[in-house]
């Protein structure tokens, strides 16, 4: 699991705000993987301690399981691996030792992970060997930054934070526009097939070994698809094309 270590971001108007990993976008997949019997190794650029965005600790993001907020806060306060994560450069030298790679979301991704060449190399490596790759909320933006002609995910169906959700976050949370935005349009321009659900609704998409999700409310659906991708890979690497999970909006 690759985490941002950025604790601050500069906005388009020059102002700065605290940022980092979105707490439930780390905690929910971490807990799901550990509960399923997996060992989760944490890595950051340079092995720096990851930061968590204060916004992600508001109860409004934990309505389905309010008690999980306290559980998540207790976990990140005591988890030894968060104090001494592996450097991404080290992970890259022994990438074959890992079954999958997962990048939680949060604005921190856009600060120190978006252009990280070690992470780009890992995504290409895992994709080329059909191992599961999970990208949450803002993290699918990484796909648009992979070296031209090297993406093993070209043409795949993906989702990410939507344009409306970006506008909402900038207007009511951040107070200014982000320097990097329009993730969906960038994914379309890079040759992916980007789709989103209604703002604030759960949306997760699996296309073969690539699993992406839209927002902090998509954790349950993302975890289901990511664990299925892991199970398939462990059982001879069967590729399941274009599965998506979204709420039923029929009358």
Automatic annotation (TrEMBL):
GO aspect biological process, one term: methylglyoxal catabolic process to D-lactate via S-lactoyl-glutathione
So which residues are the signal peptide here? Answer: none
* Matches recorded under Pfam families: DJ-1_PfpI
What are the GO cellular component annotations? cytoplasm
- Residues forming the DJ-1/PfpI domain are 25-227
Q: Which GO terms describe its molecular function?
A: glyoxalase III activity; transferase activity
What CDD domains does this protein map onto? GATase1_Hsp31_like
Does Chaperone appear among the keywords? no
The protein's UniProt keywords, in alphabetical order, are:
Glutamine amidotransferase, Lyase, Stress response, Transferase
Matching InterPro entries, A to Z? Answer: Class_I_gatase-like, DJ-1/PfpI, Prot/Nucl_acid_deglycase
This protein's source sits in the domain of life called Bacteria
Keyword Lyase listed = yes
Q: Which family does it belong to?
A: Belongs to the peptidase C56 family. HSP31-like subfamily.
Name the PANTHER family for this protein.
Answer: GLUTATHIONE-INDEPENDENT GLYOXALASE HSP31-RELATED, PROTEIN/NUCLEIC ACID DEGLYCASE DJ-1-RELATED
Q: What is this protein called?
A: Type 1 glutamine amidotransferase domain-containing protein
């Amino acid at each position: 699991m690759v985490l941002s270590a950025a604790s601050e971001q500069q906005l388009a108007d020059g102002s700065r705000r605290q940022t980092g990993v979105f707490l439930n976008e780390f905690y929910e997949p971490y807990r799901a993987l550990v509960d399923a019997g997996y060992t989760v190794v944490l890595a950051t650029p340079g092995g720096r301690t990851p930061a968590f965005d204060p916004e992600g600790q508001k109860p409004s993001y934990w309505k389905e399981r309010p008690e999980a907020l306290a559980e998540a806060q207790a976990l990140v306060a005591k988890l030894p691996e968060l104090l001494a994560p592996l450097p991404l450069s080290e992970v890259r030298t022994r990438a074959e030792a890992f079954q999958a790679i997962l990048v939680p979301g949060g604005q921190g991704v856009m600060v120190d992970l978006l252009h990280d060449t070690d992470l780009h190399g890992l995504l290409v490596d895992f994709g080329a060997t059909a191992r599961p790759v999970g990208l949450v909320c803002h993290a699918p933006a990484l796909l648009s930054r992979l070296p031209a002609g090297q993406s093993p995910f070209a043409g795949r169906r993906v989702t990410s934070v939507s344009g409306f959700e970006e506008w909402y976050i900038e207007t009511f949370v951040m107070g200014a526009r982000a320097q990097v935005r329009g993730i969906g349009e960038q994914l379309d321009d890079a040759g992916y097939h980007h789709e989103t659900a209604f703002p604030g609704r759960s949306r997760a998409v699996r296309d073969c070994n690539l699993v992406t999700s839209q927002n902090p409310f998509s954790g349950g659906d993302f975890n289901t698809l990511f664990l299925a991708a892991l199970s398939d890979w462990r059982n001879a690497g069967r590729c399941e094309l274009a599965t998506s999970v979204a709420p039923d909006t029929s009358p």
